[in-house]
Amino acid sequence: MTTRKTINLDPQRKGGLAKLLIPGFIILIIIMILSNTTFVTIDPGEKGIVFKRFSGGLDKEAAPLSQGFRVIMPWNKVYIYDIRMQEHFEKMTVLSKNGLNIEVELSCRYRPISAEIAYLHDEIGKDYLGTIILPELRSATREIIGKYLPDELYSTKRETIQLEIFERTKDKVEKNHLIIDDILIRGVKLPQTLQDAIERKLKEEQSSLEYEFRLTSERKEAERRLIEAQAKADANEILSKSLNEKILRDKGIEATLKLAESPNSKVVIVGGSDGLPLILNN
């Protein structure tokens, strides 16, 4: 037969245990609260600004908190901003100069100015991409592309249009504590019939340029040959003017005597029809 023992706790011991648990529970709650409001970690590529609830709110002139572990007062609040370069891709349908719909894919690289994130937070907030950057980017894209024809955007003026969109957006955005690093046109989609027509036109222009290049090369070659022939003619004319019958006879006698000195057997007859020696081989 099993005997069960009942242990009765002394009421005083129960009261002592309760006195220990309650303070421990309170301390645990306080630690949990403080860990979320007092201890803050700022990761690499981030900056923090402190909102002082009871002493003036945001201190815009103070330097932002840099990366690392930070301790703040529990009644204050820290706002953390990513200050690294970020990239956004945007697809738009815009009208060209002649009223055709063009699909454009853009990319925009941007970041907050780290020293001014307190002003950025106070004036705009964390959704600065949707509040400032995208509206200005879309407005600039519609305005600039609306001044050009589709074939200019597709081929000849693409870099110019891209630069104009960048400058227009940059001027507007950088007044709001943000930096636009670059804007790129990554893709342009035209109606298929128009795209085919532009490609045919580009091929024809390329063929025309190649033909013009060949003509220019041949023209230059003809000019070169003409100059060379003229130079030879001028040289011959100058040479002929510098020679006379006596000089030619002396040169002929000189050459004959040199030939006569060679070991080959020959007969030299002095006094030909023109007064020059004759050389006859045996």
From TrEMBL:
Transmembrane domains' residue ranges: 20-42
Protein name: Band 7 domain-containing protein
SMART domains: PHB
Domain Band: 37-202
Listed InterPro entries: Band_7, Band_7/SPFH_dom_sf, Prohibitin
Entry keyword Coiled coil: yes
GO cellular component: membrane
Keyword Transmembrane helix among UniProt keywords: yes
Compartments reported by the entry: Membrane
UniProt entry keywords in alphabetical sequence: Coiled coil, Membrane, Transmembrane, Transmembrane helix
Membrane topology of the entry: Single-pass membrane protein
Pfam families per the UniProt record, alphabetical: Band_7
Coiled-coil residue spans: 212-239
